[in-house]
């Protein structure tokens, strides 16, 4: 997501949320669905833009595969 110039009516704050992940294959789908709902609602209400930075710390499960699939959908 790119920052926009501060102009009335446009997004003027980019909020980055950092999410550490280690073997979160089971939790990620729920987390991703719920956090998107909140981000969408806050974006509309407060004129914010969000980016999520997921940090995979060497997971042995399919955490990385899930993160890659989410990133390809949400660009």
Q: Features of this protein?
A:
disordered N terminus, two-stranded parallel sheet, 75 residues, alpha+beta, 2 helices
Provide the β-strand percentage band. Answer: 15-25%
Stretches with pLDDT under 50, minimum 5 residues: 1-8
SSE ordering: EHEH
Strand order of the largest sheet: 1-2
The outline comes out as elongated
Description:
- With 75 residues, this protein is α+β, with helices and mostly antiparallel strands.
- Helices cover 40% and strands 24% of the residues.
- The protein contains 2 helices and 2 strands, in the order E-H-E-H.
- The chain has a two-stranded parallel sheet with strand order 1-2.
- Strand 1, helix 1 and strand 2 (48-56) form a beta-alpha-beta unit.
- The longest helix has 19 residues, at 28-46.
- The chain starts with 12 loop residues before the first strand and ends with a helix.
Q: What's this model, at a glance?
A:
The protein has 75 residues and is α+β, with helices and mostly antiparallel strands.
In terms of topology, how is this protein built?
Elements: E1 13-21, H1 28-46, E2 48-56, H2 63-73
Parallel strand pairs: 1-2
């Amino acid at each position: 997501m790119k920052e926009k110039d501060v102009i009335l009516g446009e997004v003027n704050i980019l909020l980055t949320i950092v999410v550490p992940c280690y073997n979160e294959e089971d939790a990620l789908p729920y987390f991703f669905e719920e956090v998107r709902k909140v981000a969408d609602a806050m974006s509309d209400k407060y004129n914010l833009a969000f980016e999520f930075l997921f940090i995979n710390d060497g997971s042995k499960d399919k955490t990385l595969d899930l993160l890659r699939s989410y990133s390809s959908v949400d660009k």
